[in-house]
Amino acid sequence: MAQIVRLTTRQQRSEQEEAAQAAEQLSLLSEELLKHLPGEARIALSKITHALQKAARPDTTEGLWPGGFTMLSRMQTAAIWDAIRALPSDDRPHQVRHAFDLVLLNLRQDTGEVLLNRDQLAEEIGCAPKHVSTIMGTLEKMGVIRRERRKIEGMQGRGVAVYFINPHVAWNGSLDVRKAQAAETRPPMQLELLHGGAS
Predict the structure, then answer these.
(1) Whole-model pTM over 0.70
(2) In 3D, which of 79, 74, 71 has the Cα closest to residue 143?
(3) For the chain, where are the alpha helices, taking DSSP H only?
């Protein structure tokens, strides 16, 4: 059987080589120098390096890890599953678990933003869009996600709900960014209770 090979133009190869060289140069920055940079600068450098590495190797996420992968805290994920199972039936534990799984599968690189909107979540879960707010609200109360409102031009009201994963639970992208986000975010409540209030 013939093997399908993705063709790469000379310009694409040249751009990939330039991205690889730039990423390599950034990787030569010493830990001592990085230590003295403000947190925002370290995060920006990490994001740039990650983007350059991705541009240098555009096919890697389609190899051993199709679509990329999400890093999980095994302990915290297991605690969240247990907490969801313990929910009363009125809180729709099966749909909350489905929503949690969808969150883990649809994270934006380096921000932890959930890439599905309310209607898309409703379609995947198999419920009415009005129930998504309640389901995601349950995850929010547990400390698994946080919700922000994003204003849309020409749209009245507070804006659309945008969800972000708690970086103590899962992450997709640079570990430097994840550490910075986690330092500003509390772990899920259930885990604090499990460990006597320790974070």
Answers:
(1) no
(2) 79
(3) 10-27, 31-35, 39-56, 74-85, 93-105, 118-125, 129-141, 175-183, 189-194
Residues 120-138: tens digit of each pLDDT: 999 999 999 999 999 999 9
As given in the structure block, the two tokens for residue 92 are 């729709």
CATH of the domain at 110: 1.10.10.10
Report if residue 192 sits inside a domain: no
CA distance 162 to 119: 12
Exposure class string for 11-21: b at 16+ Cβ within 10 A, else e: eeeeebeebee
Tell me, yes or no, whether 171 and 107 share the same domain: yes
Residue type, 29: L
Element (H, E) at 150: strand 145-150
Structural domain contains residue 62: no
Instruction: Please count the structural domains in the chain.
Output: 2
Report the run of H or E that residue 147 belongs to, with start and end: strand 145-150
DSSP string, 3-22: PP-----HHHHHHHHHHHHH
Among 4-18, 35-49, 145-159, the minimum mean pLDDT is found in: 4-18
Tokens of 31: 């830990």
Spatial separation of the C-alpha atoms in residues 150 and 162, rounded to whole Å? 7
Closest by CA position to 108, among listed 149, 163, 147, 43: 163
Which residue range(s) make up the domain with 30? 12-56
